[in-house]
Amino acid sequence: MQRNPPNYSQQAITSFSQSSMQVFAPSRSVITDMIMVQFISMILIFGLILMLKGNTLSADAVSAYLIGIMVSSLILGRIYTRLTQ
Hints:
Distance between the termini: 59 Å
Radius of gyration: 24 Å
């Protein structure tokens, strides 16, 4: 009985392609989590700017940061609502 030798080059190509697909095509939940983290960080950064530099900012700048917080909160809420449905 003749036994075929293992094809190491084919195994290496297959494992490389599988690992690259996992890196470059993450699952949908990972992408959603990354987007949610970005909106949470925007809310925190805008809030910190208002708390730490609020007395030196103009009224227009304060309004822009408040609008940024509001829009980020609304988008984050919509994403969370869709995830929980």
